[in-house]
Amino acid sequence: MEVKWLLDFLSLVDTRNFSRSADDRATTQPAFSRRIKALEEWLGAPMFDRSKQPIELTEAGRRFKPVADEVLRRLFQSREEIQRIGQRTESTITFAATHSLSLVFFPNWIRGVEKELGQLRTRLDSKQIRNCVQSLVRGECNFALLPTHTSVEVELSEEEFISLPVGLDRLVPVSAPDETGAPRHALPGTQKAPLDYLSYFGSAVSGRAVEVLLREKGNEIHLRRVFETHLAGVLKSMAVEGRGVAWLPQSEVVTELEAGSLVYAGDNSWNIASEIRLFRSRDPLPNTAEAFWKYLDDAASASS
């Protein structure tokens, strides 16, 4: 079955003349006749009574006409809808970002970009870092917004992907305060009284960066891992409740530090520098996404 057979059929219904329909369909009469015959063979019954002039629909043809009308109507309607979706997709800039960056950094960052570029159509999928990377590799998003640390390698080949720095942050150890305002869980702890440690779980890049720091500290630090999750927001809630010490993005605990519900659990030697980077494939992106990237690239070059 071909769509053009349905268009041929409906043209012949209107003209009731093979020669005129062939002209309307911009083909020769023999070619047009062969396509009508092919349709009839596919359906298994003649659609037209050729013994009459002008030709008439057979009973099978009369039954089939509303079906052909409906099929073509739905096809063309669907095509128009898909085209509109395609146009929206072309103009939508899609991001995958870690949960932590999705909650705090992304809204403020995109708002700043829009002050220069005007309002953008964007879509954000919040995921674990491994899933963000997979989304970018599979082409499910234009950009991946990820925290990076010098001690942890992002699993994206430089031959296939490039990135730009778009922000700075740091992981800081925090704890609920005691009655004097001092950290209830103050680093580094002791061998007799290790600190309760609220840690990241699985592939979280922040968790891997913290583990590198802890290995470097060696016997200097004494922790007892009591809780694990891949969500920084959950770690923050547990820390506020006084359940232990956690390393959290400073940008995510500004409010709690100002309110005093969290305090720093150690000095600056326990902090971990973090650079927020925007990753993309080296393959061409839709025009809107390319224009967005060019603005960021130009801005980064101007500030360097």
UniProtKB/TrEMBL annotation:
Family annotation (PROSITE patterns): HTH_LYSR (PS50931)
Native organism taxonomy: Bacteria, Pseudomonadati, Pseudomonadota, Alphaproteobacteria, Rhodobacterales
Keywords from the named record: DNA-binding, Transcription, Transcription regulation
Domain HTH lysR-type: 1-58
Protein name per its UniProtKB record: Transcriptional regulator, LysR family
Domain of life of the source: Bacteria
Coiled coil location: none
CDD domains registered for this protein in UniProt: PBP2_LTTR_substrate
Family: Belongs to the LysR transcriptional regulatory family.
Molecular-function GO term, any one: DNA-binding transcription factor activity
Entries under Pfam families matching the protein: HTH_1, LysR_substrate
